[in-house]
Write a structure and sequence with these properties.
309 residues, alpha/beta, TIM Barrel, seven-stranded parallel β-sheet, binds iron/sulfur cluster
């Protein structure tokens, strides 16, 4: 960890597979229960699915979509069902789509499935157990916030306890079926009504969860979202790049060093991002983060009592 100051996903994958691994984003043609009225309408206030849908989207042809994105046989690839809620469908549809992804190329070594905590019916758990035996499986779950008031304000359609319950169910699934897969939580940092102290408490709370990986997203205002409407009506404070670096460094120092960091900033395409403009490129985020952490003698887990590096 000494070179990067945190437990990086790239290195985790390199150690696991012995070569560079890339993710291929897929639009599997799923929808979301928070948009279609099952859990809610309108979706989360920050969500514009185009901001995380591969371009061009080939949702009716998963094999072609994957093959289009394979750039070299030097690498191995993880097929990432990213758009919308990718366990929200029938058993047959899910297995058909996951099988298509795995069969698209011998270079595919894993599946990554992004979903919500309220889309884990019993047959979904059975499917997870089945695919965990045949490939390297990662389940992404949007935590977004540990605060119910925030989850309500962003129209998430579930509370924090529902996330914790689902994470525990997945953890029990691993133990009861003697299988292994990775669980990755997503959080969003920078809601204007939360304070920096709130954000440090996130780390303490996240340390208690049975997750293996974490994606940290800075709040972005994306075109054609409810959040953009709110911002245009009454602009609110968004973190500057320096503030976000300071936050990230301190957050990581309180985070267990066992948690693999998959992402440290949001990745919205330029043409859809409204604010903050600094997050259009990763600029030299990682270099600046390193310098800040080095200067302040911080590393992932440095403030976690008894943490081993
Ligand atoms: S962020 Fe995810 S859960 Fe929320 S509306 Fe978008 S697809 Fe649905």
């Amino acid at each position: 960890m000494s070179d990067l100051k945190y437990n990086s996903y790239a290195r985790f994958l390199k150690n696991k597979f012995g070569c560079k691994i890339k993710k291929i984003s897929i639009d599997g043609g799923f929808t979301c229960p928070n948009k279609d009225g099952t859990k809610g309408k309108g979706g989360c206030i920050f969500c514009n699915e185009l901001s995380y849908t591969p371009i061009p989207s080939v949702k009716d042809n998963i094999v072609q979509s994957i093959q289009n994105q394979i750039t070299s046989d030097k690498y191995r690839y993880i097929a990432y069902f990213q758009t919308n809620t990718n366990t929200y469908s029938s058993k047959d549809d899910l297995t058909k789509k996951y099988d298509s992804a795995l069969s698209a190329s011998p270079l595919i070594i894993g599946l990554n499935i992004g979903t919500r905590c309220d889309c884990f019916q019993d047959y979904v758990l059975d499917i997870i157990a089945e695919y965990a035996k045949k490939t390297y499986l990662t389940i992404d779950i949007g935590i977004e916030s540990i605060y119910d008031q925030t989850l309500k304000t962003i129209n998430r359609g579930h509370d924090y306890n529902s996330v914790v319950d689902t994470l525990n169910i997945l953890n029990n699934l691993k133990k009861s079926r003697n299988i292994n897969f990775d669980v990755c939580g997503h959080i969003i940092i920078g809601f204007p009504w939360e304070t920096k102290n709130n954000w440090i408490l996130y780390a303490n709370e996240i340390n208690k969860l049975p997750i293996d990986h974490l994606k940290i997203n800075n709040l972005q205002v994306v075109k054609n979202t409810k959040l953009a409407e709110m911002y245009n009506e009454k602009p609110f404070n968004l973190l500057s790049s320096d503030e976000y670096i300071e936050f990230t460094a301190n957050f990581l120092s309180y985070l267990s060093p066992k948690i693999v960091i998959q992402r440290l900033t949001s990745h919205c395409p330029k043409d859809l991002l409204l604010y903050p403009k600094w997050s259009i490129s990763k600029f030299n985020f990682h270099e600046k983060l390193y310098v800040y952490m080095e200067k302040n003698n911080l590393f992932q887990g440095s403030k976690v009592e008894g943490a081993l590096r």
